[in-house]
Amino acid sequence: MSSKIRILLAEDHETVREGLKMIIDTQSDMETVGVAGNGEMAVALAQQLKPDIVVMDISMPGLNGSRATKRIIKSHPKVGIVALTRHKESGYVHELLRAGAAGYVLKQSAPEEFLRAIRAVKEGKSYLDPAVTAGVLKDFTGRQLAHAKNLVDLTEREAEVLRLIAAGYSNKEIAGQLQVSVKTVEAHKANSMKKLNFSSRTEIVNYALLRGWLGTN
Q1: Where does the chain have alpha helices with state H?
Q2: CATH numeric code, 5-150
Q3: pTM of the full predicted structure?
Q4: How much is the pLDDT for 149?
Q5: What CATH topology corresponds to 156-211?
């Protein structure tokens, strides 16, 4: 039986996927056992191949990385998920950790970070790319990273406001729908953006897509 770390790659960009596969397959302790170009395929291959690690791109067509991670963990709880993304905002980190990922690495980081994450997760540890650590460190004060998925989520109203913002409604329109004042809407928006470390509406829209709030994934 192979002692190598068996890895499934889920990445929709072929060039990136082939580059990652080459990095993995040149390691003496790793091997790529399958590749997936979307979330649905990743879930199916994880069931079929039962890899040790799934390297999961967050932004994929159809089923996104967060939802694919949840499905894989539900059916194959022993697999380690290493999230791979260009997003360094803490909101994305929190969401993937809640979904069940144990590692989080940026695509723009050196290959060594990617390999460290795979090895750490295979050993049952959690791994955060150093480039995102500073942004989320305050959320983990006095806690083990392994407990990160238990972080307090947005309140129901904060999430509702963000959903509506992502759907394109103005603060005034949201206030009318929720029967609250515009000031209250602004307060919920500010609180949720502070929790998620977001600074723009684009980040809110991307996050809403990640959570499946807009119904496109």
Answers
A1: 14-25, 39-49, 65-75, 90-99, 111-122, 130-136, 156-166, 171-178, 182-196, 201-211
A2: 3.40.50.2300
A3: 0.67
A4: 40
A5: Arc Repressor Mutant, subunit A (1.10.10)
